[in-house]
Design a protein that fits this description.
The complex is a heterodimer of chains A (298) and B (437). Chain A has 298 residues and is of the alpha/beta class. Chain A has eleven helices and ten strands. In chain A, helix 8 links the parallel strand 7 and strand 8. The chains are: A alpha/beta (298), B mainly alpha (437). Chains A and B meet through helix 3, helix 4 and helix 7 of A and helix 15 and helix 16 of B. Bound molecules: adenosine-5'-triphosphate and magnesium ion (MG).
Amino acid sequence: METITTSSTSVTKDTPLMTPEKPNEVVENKVIDRDHRGQTVGDVTVENPRMTARNVNVWYGDKHAIQNVNLDIANNEVAALIGPSGCGKTTFLRCLNRMNDTIDGCLVEGEIALDGKNIYDKDVDVVPLRARVGIVFQKPNPFPKSIYENVAYGPRIHGLARNKTDLDEIVHSSLKRSGLFDEVKDRLDQPGTGLSGGQQQRLCIARAIAVSPEVILMDEPCSALDPIATATIEELIDELRKKYSIVIVTHSMQQAARVSQRTAYFHLGDLIEVGPTSEIFTNPKHKLTEEYITGRFG
Amino acid sequence: MSESNHSGTTSMPSSKRAFDIVTDSLGKRYAAEKRFRIYGIVSIMLAIAFLLILLVSIVSKGLPAFTYTQVQLPITYDETVVDPEGGRDVDTLSRANYSALIKSSLRELFPEVTERSELRKLNKIVSSGADFLLRNRILENPDLIGTQEQVWLPVDDEVDTYLLLKDNEAFGTGRLSESQVSWVNRLIQDGKMENRFNRTFFTASDSREPESAGILGALVGSALTLLITLIISFPLGVAAAVYLEEFAPKNRWTDLIEVNINNLAAVPSIIFGLLGLAVFINFFGLPRSAPLVGGLVLSLMTLPTIIIASRASLKSVPPSIREGALGIGASKMQTVTHHVLPLALPGMMTGTIIGMAQALGETAPLLMIGMVAFIVEVPGGIFDSATVLPVQIYLWADSPERAFVALTSATIMVLLTFLILMNGLAVLLRKRFEKRW
Ligand SMILES: Nc1ncnc2c1ncn2[C@@H]1O[C@H](COP(=O)(O)OP(=O)(O)OP(=O)(O)O)[C@@H](O)[C@H]1O
Ligand SMILES: [Mg+2]
């Protein structure tokens, strides 16, 4: 705590979240000590938030997986979560649509609001929540059903298509946008589990966007993709951003730099630093962030 | 070499040395592997040998029961005997004296026999249950009255036993008299007595006479009992497993329930019989010996098996599939019915079939609820008195007549056939629907 070199950049209990006092000017060229944790460097808030996370703590049994994370996700923004393996990126991502509810022994504390409404309130129904906040998992998990059924399942259970033509249209356009359509258009009735790893990943992306979520959470969506497929997905992300908000976890700095507007750096369960992507990559304030993006560990 | 390692700057053994150690120990490792393989092969051989001994003994004893010595007699359906009133009344027809028809036919074949005691011995050649066959023929087709036809009728079990064992010096003529032996030999020479397929075994129920005893009653009893068991235990078991695995919170209560279910699977089956007797028969007043009660008792017994198998099969569905469905906004129920259940169902059915096979072979609890009675009628419904295949085996194994030994083994063969079919079906299901994800 004593090693804080600046008084204004961190969110403390005394400084209200909504009134950061021009964080970037003071710390110019100053790198915060790597032992300093617990308070996020940079401005976690945005002007037009879609989702706001406040004091989020997650435990898996006894393991405190993420600690006191505050982060806003803006409208029409791509937020990138980066950090070394096991630092809690997936955990935080899964909190945003309450997927952690499905894990036994997982406890989520704090407040996460979608359009101002706390999604962890008792009266919130997770079914519509997850339709609004879609997720693409780290490991592709297509249903052991046909490719068509994989994509059609969401629209069908939510009643998004009035008839077969509608549904066909949704399925085809979703597959096209995820860049898979040309590869599978002749075998839509074949099992989705028979696709290659990268194809499965794009199938899962198509499945997620088929229900038109307002916020899309993507956990390393391009980890198994070649550069061309990656480019397609990045184009898709760019296009989706016009209407929706996207949170993407990635291990590729270049990808984070290409697609995101804001970047959040996690380290061992702490949200270390948040800032505009360009700044994080060119001028990180925290020693850990700097070490990570310059490749000294992670 | 070790010297240099101690003094060397690196603590890692040199690669040469590690390689030497590996090659040195290699012989020992392979020997252990070989020994283990031999143990395995020996135990499998032993198991196969015991199985073969069992099968050979059952088949060699049981095969004779599938055939039976029968005698061809020209039967005249004399109207004065069969239907003296001429009304073709079913009651009169079924009460007529059909053994008289057999007796007169025999007397015509052997006109030289006149003495009363000899005549009685002659009549003894044909099974005392043969008149039922004639009665059934007439009841099925009353137009036969007044006509004559050749009919194959079963012989008395003593005749059958004699023919089976006559080459054995010690057996001699068995319980047959000299004159009976000579008649039998003459009938065989004339081609009027031969070993034929024993239809009675599959079309009749239990009887005091081995030649008219069959397994149809026990088969139908087993089928009805299993049907009840399936109808009750499959839906209950699957529902319980789905609830416990997918919906119930994991806490001390569900742990307790889990332990209890596992315990129930290990409870001796006769306890379930006692429970059935106390609850279903004495308390609820359901009929004794009925397939309904048998099925209820066996359901209690198979439920734990089905629940355990179903839970295992639900557990084997990868969580990522549930997450995939939940992640696009499927409800818990939709996730289970659309994705988890279809994937788990083959495993559940396999478990159910194996549970059913266990139930099919179960005897003890059924003895407790009185399904052990001597029942000559084929049960017509789940409330009728009935017996089941394993109990029939138990009953016949207890009978003194020699011919019942063959019947017992033959029934065991039938039971084994069903068990093999069921287990085969289970394997087939598993193979057919095995999904990779
Ligand atoms: N289901 C779980 N049960 C127990 N511990 C878990 C579980 N999931 C994650 N953890 C722990 O929580 C911490 C954060 O995990 P998380 O999956 O969020 O990491 P991550 O940042 O996504 O890593 P990666 O980049 O490797 O995907 C890790 O230490 C992990 O071991
Ligand atoms: Mg992860």
